[in-house]
Amino acid sequence: MRLPRRDCEGRAFTIIEVMISMGIFMMVVAAIYATWISILRGSQAGLKAAAHAQRSRIALRTLQDALLTAVSYPDGASNYWFLAKTEGDFANLSFTARLPETFPGVRRHGSAPLRQVNFFVAGGSDGRNQLVVRQKPLLAPDVEDAWYELVLSPDVTEFRVGFFDQVTGAFGPEWGQSNAIPTLVQIQIGMGVSEQGNQPFTLAGTVVSPPGQRTGLGPPRGAFPLPGGGLPPGGNLPPTR
Known about the structure:
Shape: elongated
Number of strands: 9
Number of domains: 1
Order of helices and strands: HEEEEEEEEEH
Low-confidence stretches: 213-235
Structural class: alpha+beta
Mean pLDDT: 75
Strand order of the largest sheet: 1-2-3-4-5
Distance between the termini: 90 Å
């Protein structure tokens, strides 16, 4: 039995209308899904940026507190120094400081505030680099148990330090006066990786002006080479692990 031509045309139009409606519905669903994904990614990026910013602030504040209490005593070259290794993206700072009571972990070693402090970057268990601070009482033996270690920031992709050169009037990476405290220290911390993959996701920095405090009377602050070519006894930076 054949359907009348008019009925066939009506059914054809109905099928086309259904297909068009389904197409429009799928487009609307796709648009809603794309918007939701965009909002979700934006929310995740915002939370990630906020977390990185908070960690950067904590790390910068900890570095600032330590640098503002750095001490130098020209007659005590075996215990007082300011060393900086700045090659590449990750610096290594080691110096003597009279840390404040609010400094993380300072109360673990009693009431002796004079500490050897070390800031460096090391690999974490998740394969990402992390900014670490270590400290020990100044006169404590240089053994692993004497050091207190704390991770300041995970996922660190850059830790750069610069020192003001009064001759050039600019910041540079070199600091050769190992028994003197720099007048201005520039710090920059990068965290995460941008979508381009060649820049940090977040970048924070500050400039610190250490007061040049000394632990006793003596000549004015300046360059006083340490024995062994300007390094502490043993000729190396303190161990980072």
